[in-house]
Design goal:
By secondary structure, the protein is of the alpha+beta class. It folds into 2 domains: about 55 residues, no CATH class; about 35 residues, no CATH class. Strand 1, helix 2 and strand 2 form a beta-alpha-beta unit. The protein is globular.
Length: about 110
């Protein structure tokens, strides 16, 4: 929450959050996501990268799911039937072994 507070000091129009629930106790996750939802309600634009799919979809206006850099879902949150659709798209489409992931050319 401190990182969010620090970011808000600059009075941004958009807040980028990468896994704000990562490594936190469930009760703290609820608090952090409640703050994110409040900020959204107050008009702040938020780009949320989050594996807690159910909570993220509840907060989101739009859902984009990537699988190894490929877009597998991209539509308004209210059109996402349920979180199992996201899990299926994400987990079902994953490559099985690291050797299947293309190596970046450097």
């Amino acid at each position: 929450m401190l990182a969010i507070a620090q970011a808000l000091m600059a009075q941004p129009r958009v807040l980028l959050l990468d896994e704000p629930s990562g490594g936190l106790a469930p009760i703290v996750v609820k608090q952090v996501l409640a703050i994110v939802e409040e900020l959204k309600t107050d008009g702040l634009g938020i780009l949320l990268v989050e594996q807690a799919a159910e909570e993220a979809v509840r907060i989101a206006d739009h859902v984009t799911v990537l699988d190894v850099g490929r877009v597998v879902i991209d539509r308004p949150a209210h059109e996402v039937a349920d979180v199992s659709e996201i899990r299926s798209a994400y987990l079902g489409g994953r490559r099985k072994k690291p050797s299947d992931v293309p190596k970046s050319e450097g």
